[in-house]
Every structure is written in structure tokens, then in C-alpha cells.
């Protein structure tokens, strides 16, 4: 059916009508008094979402741009950093560090497995001369559906005292409880097309006072992504360069929706959808890539049975039901598919996606499940 496409991917995510209507309005001047008022309101709401009283800066960039800014503004060439790598986006931060001459020591885990916090503890405790300048981790590894143990890793960083913790929260901010001030997180990057429920185009960076101290001596090149400029203009409810005006208006609308729902309800909804999705997959006798105790609240990676290609499953779901699920990346391409349950997603969407999955794998000849088992399992979780 025309114009009936349903996104069940980890980004872009579905967008509520109020945000779409804000996007459709005629733009206003980005240096106008009216827009300054919008920026002031949006900034206050962003601090609420991030659970911080510190700076939360808006960049016209993707989540990768926000994370790159979070690295280059607080580090210097040759700095020693620890980078967690257990998926595509952990790999990306290693690549960014290498591009800028930052000395990245990689702490790896197999794709589909969480990072081991004890590996970080060992490196940090062995650093008697306090040479490690930062620890960079991906909280929710989008490529595999793994949720890394941010709280424990952060506790080891805090015990080190000198190192910053830089967090990729692109698919966890707005889905997981990340109390930035309570945890003392230094740099947290995220992107608009995920839990914020608006299209791609804006990046966000939360910055602690400790990180701003590091900014004073950081020597990596920066211009457009200079957070010092962004901070100076944010104090005047503005931005150093032309921002995406209508995206900020859409952000205002989506944040208002989020505030009406409330943080606790948002986090509980994402947890419920994760649990319902995983229960359904198990009921269909399909395998899950991430273990139960390290499963993302935003994305579930599914391993199809031998002989059933993941890309064929995705293609069938899209063709028959106009539902888009995500594929695997790099060596997992064709070996997994990923179901997004992030942002503007309700119980109805979960049930629809699971029913479409059941029908599609059945049409492809897979019969190792009782018809309706996935939907039944999801309903039991959603009703509990």
C-alpha cells in the first residue's frame, strides 16, 4: 500500500505527527528573537532529558558528528585513551582516534558480546602515572543489540580520577536511564534520529566541567565542531553557524511529548518492548545475538536458522507488509537482522512487527514454531 512504510530499524525511527507538522512550517530566522526563545526552551528540555545541569550543545550533524566533536574537543595528539570495541560503532571511534593521531588502546570483545568491565579496570589500575586521558565506550552497540555496562566501567574511570569518560549514547539516550550528573559522565554524544523521535540532522553533546577543563589544553584541529564556540553561543540561546531551524522546532515538539510521558515511563516502555521482542523471538525458536543480561533496550539482533537468509527475511517483510527491519553490518551482513524498538514506538508496533515476521518466515518455509507463538509471547510480556 502506498505511503504505508513502517520503520522498525534503529534509526531513522518513526516521527510523531506534532514533530512532522513543525518540520512543515515556514522557517524563521535563526538569528531572530523568536528562534532564540525556542532555543532557550529546547536547551532546558534537553537538560531534563539528559538529567544534567551542565551544558547540552546542539550541532547540525549526525550522531557521528556529535561523537567526533566529543573526542576532538577534549583530547590532544598523542594522548593515550582506552576505546571499547565490540561492534561497528566501537570500531568507528578507534578510526576517529587514529584519524586525529590519538593513541587508542583497544579493548575488544566479540561482536554480540558485551565489553568486559574488568578489562578496563585492569588497564586503569595499572596506569600509575595517570597517562590515560579518556575512556571511550559505546553504551548501546547498534550493530549487535548489545548494551555495555556503562555504570561499572564508569566507576573504574572515576577511581582513576584523571581520565574522562566519553560515551556514545546514540541509541541509548532517550531509551535508557542515563543520569549524567549522578554518574558524573564527562562527554555524552547522541543523535536526533533515534530516541529523540525526529529525522536525522542534529547531534547533541553533553559536557561536564571536568571536560571543559580538558578543553583548555586540547590541541586537536577543529572549527565547525568546536564546542567552545557552541557553548559561547548557547549561552545567548543561539548557535555559531546556521542551524537546521525546522529540525530544532521539531525537536521542541518531540521533547514536549517526552515530557508529557515522563522519563520513568519512557524507560519502562523501552524495557517492555525489548522484553516483548526477545520473548517473541525465543517463542519462534530463533536465536538472539546478544545475551539476555546485556541486551539493548533499543534494538534486537536476531540470528535466523541455518538455510534461511536474513536478507531474504527482511526483503519478504518489506514486500509483504511494508515494514523495514535492519540488516547485519560487515561480517554479519546476511547473518542477522535487527528489529528496532526505539523512540516513537508503541505496543501496537511491536505486535505488528512480530506478526509480520511470523508470516514472512512461514512463507519462506520455516515451520519450527507454533503459529501465533511469537505474538502470544509478546502479548504476555506487554500485558504483564
CATH architecture term of the largest domain: 3-Layer(aba) Sandwich
* CATH level 4 superfamily of the largest domain: Type I PLP-dependent aspartate aminotransferase-like (Major domain)
Main sheet, how many strands, which sense, barrel? 7 strands, mixed
Rounded average pLDDT = 97
CATH class of the largest domain: Alpha Beta
Distance between the termini: 34 Å
Structural class: alpha/beta
Number of distinct helices: 14
Strand content: 15-25%
Helices and strands in order:
Elements: E1 6-8, H1 17-24, H2 33-50, E2 55-59, H3 63-72, E3 80-85, H4 88-99, E4 103-108, H5 117-125, E5 132-138, E6 140-141, E7 146-147, H6 150-160, E8 164-168, H7 180-183, E9 187-191, E10 203-207, H8 209-215, H9 227-234, H10 245-261, H11 263-283, E11 287-288, E12 299-303, H12 310-321, E13 323-327, E14 337-340, H13 347-363, H14 373-383
Parallel strand pairs: 1-13, 3-4, 3-5, 5-8, 8-9
Antiparallel strand pairs: 2-10, 6-7, 9-10, 11-12, 12-14, 13-14
Short structural description:
Helix content is 43%, strand content 16%. The chain is of the alpha/beta class and 384 residues long.
Amino acid at each position: 500500500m502506498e505511503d504505508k512504510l513502517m520503520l522498525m530499524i534503529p534509526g531513522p525511527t518513526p516521527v510523531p505527527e506534532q514533530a512532522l507538522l513543525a518540520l512543515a512550517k515556514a522557517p524563521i530566522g535563526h538569528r531572530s528573537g523568536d528562534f532564540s526563545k525556542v532555543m532557550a526552551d529546547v536547551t532546558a528540555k534537553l537538560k531534563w532529558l539528559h538529567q544534567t545541569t551542565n551544558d547540552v550543545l546542539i550541532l547540525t550533524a549526525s550522531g557521528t558528528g556529535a561523537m567526533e566533536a566529543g573526542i576532538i574537543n577534549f583530547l590532544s595528539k598523542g594522548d593515550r585513551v582506552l576505546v571499547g570495541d565490540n561492534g561497528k560503532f566501537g570500531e568507528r571511534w578507534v578510526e576517529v582516534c587514529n584519524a586525529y593521531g590519538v593513541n587508542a588502546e583497544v579493548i575488544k570483545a566479540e561482536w554480540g558480546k558485551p565489553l568486559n568491565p574488568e578489562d578496563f579496570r585492569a588497564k586503569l589500575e595499572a596506569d600509575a602515572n595517570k597517562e590515560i586521558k579518556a575512556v571511550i565506550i559505546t553504551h548501546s552497540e547498534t550493530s549487535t543489540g548489545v548494551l555495555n555496562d556503562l555504570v561499572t566501567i564508569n566507576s573504574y574511570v572515576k577511581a582513576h580520577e584523571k581520565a574522562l569518560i566519553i560515551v556514545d549514547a546514540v541509541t541509548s539516550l532517550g531509551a535508557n536511564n542515563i543520569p549524567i550528573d549522578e554518574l558524573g559522565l564527562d562527554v555524552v554524544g547522541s543523535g536526533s534520529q533515534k530516541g529523540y523521535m525526529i529525522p536525522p540532522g542534529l547531534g547533541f553533546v553533553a559536557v561536564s566541567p571536568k571536560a571543559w577543563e580538558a578543553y583548555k589544553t586540547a590541541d586537536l584541529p577543529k572549527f565547525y565542531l568546536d564546542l567552545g564556540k557552541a557553548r559561547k553561543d548557547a549561552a545567548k540561546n543561539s548557535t555559531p553557524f546556521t542551524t537546521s531551524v525546522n529540525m530544532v522546532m521539531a525537536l521542541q515538539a518531540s521533547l514536549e511529548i517526552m515530557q508529557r510521558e515522563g522519563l520513568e515511563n519512557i524507560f519502562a516502555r523501552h524495557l517492555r518492548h525489548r522484553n516483548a521482542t526477545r520473548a517473541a523471538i525465543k517463542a519462534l525458536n530463533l536465536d538472539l545475538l546478544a545475551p539476555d543480561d546485556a541486551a539493548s533496550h533499543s534494538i534486537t539482533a536476531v540470528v535466523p536458522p541455518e538455510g534461511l537468509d536474513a536478507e531474504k527475511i527482511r526483503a519478504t517483510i518489506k514486500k509483504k507488509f511494508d515494514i523495514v527491519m535492519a540488516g547485519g553490518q560487515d561480517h554479519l551482513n546476511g547473518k542477522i537482522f535487527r528489529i528496532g524498538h526505539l523512540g516513537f514506538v508503541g505496543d501496537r508496533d511491536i505486535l505488528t512487527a512480530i506478526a509480520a515476521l511470523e508470516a514472512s518466515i512461514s512463507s519462506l518455509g520455516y515451520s519450527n514454531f507454533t503459529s501465533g507463538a511469537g505474538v502470544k509471547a509478546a502479548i504476555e510480556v506487554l500485558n504483564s
